[in-house]
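Deliverable D5.2: sample structural annotation.
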Amino acid sequence: MFEVGDYVVHGTHGVCRVEAVQEMDLAGTGSSRMYYTLVPLYTSGSKLFVPIEGGKVVTRSVMTKKEARKLLEEWDEIETLWIENDKKREEIYKEALRSCDSRQWVKLIKTSYQRNQTRIKNGKKATTSDERYLHMAEEHLFGELAIPFEMSKGEAENYFISQLREKEAVC
């Protein structure tokens, strides 16, 4: 169970802060249920009311610094989601985003980036779909990484990319 003030990753909403844990009446049923009130960090003015048990959307703790460093170390070993069929690839991208799993986001980022580079090298534009899902995955990943490193999302992105480049230079 999460506590007030905890940071969590919730579905496609990204990083949220737990604002309250409270019992709420279920309209017209005469029963109640425990809910988290979540405030998305990167979407102003919104609140989410999420059931503590039995929710259909994944809610998990934000990764720790140690977990984030491990993700960086394993970046090269994380496979891509390479799928030729555009419709199937888009469905896999959607699943990766909904999974609320940072490793799945890395797979999506690597796949989209590689596809875009290949297309550009072949004189084609990056696809709108790849660009859109790449952006969403980066928003989720760097938004989460910002929390354990106590940085802004932009600083986390710059830091993480610089670490990847340093790692490439060493290899």
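Annotation notes: The first helix runs from residue 65 to 73. Helices lie at 65-73, 86-98, 102-121, 128-146, 153-170.
The annotation will be released with the project's public dataset once the embargo ends.
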